[in-house]
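[Meeting: bench + compute handoff]

Bench side (C.D.) handed over the final construct sequence. Compute side (W.E.) agreed to return the predicted structure before the next meeting so the bench team could plan truncations. Sequence as handed over:
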Amino acid sequence: MKILHLSAAQKWGGGENHLENLCHELKEEIENTVFCVAGGMLHERLKEKEVRVIPAPLANKMDPRFFLKLSRICKKEQFDLLHIHDSTALTLAVMADHFTDLPTFILSKKTSFPIRPRRRTLFKYNYPKIRSILCVSEATKQISSKTLSRNERLKVIYHGTRLDNKSEKSPFSLRNRYNIPKEAVLIGNIGNHIEAKHLETFIKTAHQLVNVKQRKDFYFLQIGNFSKRTAALLEMVKEYNLEKHLSFTGYIPEASAFIPQFDIMLITSENEGIPQVIYESFYYNIPVVSTNVGGIPEVIENKINGLLSEAYDHKGIGENLLFLIENPQVIPNFAKISREKLFKHFTSKIMAEKTLKEYKKATNGRYH
């Protein structure tokens, strides 16, 4: 079976990690080709992998060079399916389909943002060539069903994480590089500087513990791509006088390899599908404190295998962090339950097997 994966992402994030994992897990059963943004982080990363990559320029979300090249490639080659990995890629695929008869679509919906009931948006999400929409969580499925037609297309497939590429060795020590005392409690976060991650709450939580609670033994470290939002976040750190207790590192390759150095993984998002770092934290036995948003409560049960607070509740999040540090005896049980869940439900191998079944359905049983 020949699958063309379509991505319009410029930067690296959980969605791109999912695409890479999917190609890796299905390399024996599928002939994978990735059509992506020339010079983007996905393109640069896959150059080093055993995946065929076709790059195309994308200066804006409607760049004709991208969708016209996609048309030519699909006309030239007989792909069985087009797996679309983000909203912008869907827009470009619909445009390309007007020039060449593209193969059947499968769409991955990786966030729990509501689909806006605008005519153009509904047109592309209800496009007749979409055979199934693979939702990252039940929450994503429920939110999508409110505005879409043909809801039988909506399927839930959790992304999971790879088990064969994990290492306890990190490229360097975070504590050494960022001058974090050995005895400090290291609170980590991994995510790009986008609105959904709501890193303002991350900063306010640090302020609550370091300045209000006077816990000078806490240090907060955030790893992820900077954006136009970063300047305001850095200004906020200065405003709260947190320069000695909070650092933004920017993008670091293979960021999940640093999770074992964290004492706690902290997620302060206002909206999520399910962040990949939760699965990674489960693998490394690192406890997770998070906001109760999107699909997160589908994998973390409050006080069973992690601690949840409402979005924006930096005081409640701070109390949960303090509880874990002051009651370390609960952490091994949290970790045990989380790891069992991971191996039973949330590996990339399980994700790939379920995705392959959807590929076979979409090709009307031509492949068995």
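W.E. noted at the follow-up: Residues 174-345 form a domain with the Rossmann fold fold (CATH 3.40.50.2000). C.D. will use this when planning the next construct.
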